[in-house]
Design goal:
This protein is an alpha/beta fold. The protein has 2 domains: 8-65, Signal recognition particle alu RNA binding heterodimer, srp9/1, CATH 3.30.720; 80-131, 2-Layer Sandwich (Signal recognition particle alu RNA binding heterodimer, srp9/1). It is built from 2 helices and 8 strands, in the order βαββββαβββ. The chain has helices at residues 15-26, 87-98; strands at 8-11, 29-34, 48-54, 60-65, 80-84, 102-109, 115-120, 126-131. The strands form 2 sheets. It has a 4-stranded mixed beta sheet with strand order 1-4-3-2, covered by helices on one side. Strands 5-8-7-6 form a 4-stranded mixed beta sheet, covered by helices on one side. The model has no long low-confidence stretch (mean pLDDT 90).
Length: 136
């Protein structure tokens, strides 16, 4: 199997909605475990302890809520990057991720020959999309 590097996204109380949104964007199988599934009772029980989305493209995106009393990790300087030569697929991801979010750089041809854009989705996660240009 080797090793993998996968994003693990932290939310305050929107992990389920965010991970379901990413399933809509990328497709795949989403597994969600709540704190209640592990025996926690009360208002924290419905929060997501761990969610994992496995997509048809081979992405693995994980996430969780941060329960009361735990500090939420800061993602200073972290952006999730999607890149490749599947232009239609990547354009579709960019469109869906930026809907109800904010485009910080439109997806368009850049001076290095690729199409590139950046956005922040409605859950506050920053994304970059780079579509490889023609090798000609």
């Amino acid at each position: 199997m080797g090793t993998n590097l996968n994003p693990y996204l932290h939310f305050t109380d929107t992990a389920r909605a965010a991970m379901e949104f990413y399933r809509e964007v990328f497709g795949g199988t989403l597994n969600v475990m709540t704190f209640g599934d592990m025996g926690t009772e009360g208002p924290e029980a419905a929060k997501v302890m761990h969610a994992q989305l496995e997509t048809p493209s081979g992405y693995l995106i994980m996430g969780s809520d941060t329960p009361e009393g735990m500090s939420r990790p800061t993602g200073n300087g972290i952006t999730v990057s999607l890149s490749g030569d599947q232009a239609d697929e990547l354009r579709g991801y960019f469109k869906l991720l930026s809907d109800s979010g904010a485009v910080t750089m439109p997806l368009e041809k850049q001076m290095w020959g690729d199409e590139f854009g950046a956005c922040t989705d409605r859950f506050g996660v920053d994304w970059m999309v780079n579509i490889a240009g023609s090798s000609a």
